[in-house]
User: What shape does this take?
Amino acid sequence: MKDSIKSTRGFSLIEILIAIVILSVSLLALAALMVTTTQNNSFGAHMSEATTFAQDMLERLRVSQWANVKSDADRVTGSTGINYDRSWVVSPNPISEDDNLRTVTITVKWNDKIDHSISVLSAIYK
Assistant: This one.
């Protein structure tokens, strides 16, 4: 009878405390990973939005009258409330001697606790 009581014995208090410490450390590491993942997803969304704004301006310049294709800048607000400073530089293409080909560099800058920017380089031919 005494042997059957020993075999049904549960976990000791030390074993439970060690298991709780291991679980706590694992959950803290998981929480830190979630913060990093959220920040990276946010940066990816801002990068996609900035690229879309750059492509949008490039398309506007492509369909504009040739005399209106010149350097300028503006500010646009994204769907997340972030302000993007967009500037574009239009210059004659050094390879072409006629005025039918221009090089366009569009730069989009934004700040989400850190300054970021992207640049798109293209050519427009009329």
Q: What stands out?
A: The longest strand covers residues 101-111. The helical segments are 2-7, 13-63. The chain has two helices and four strands.
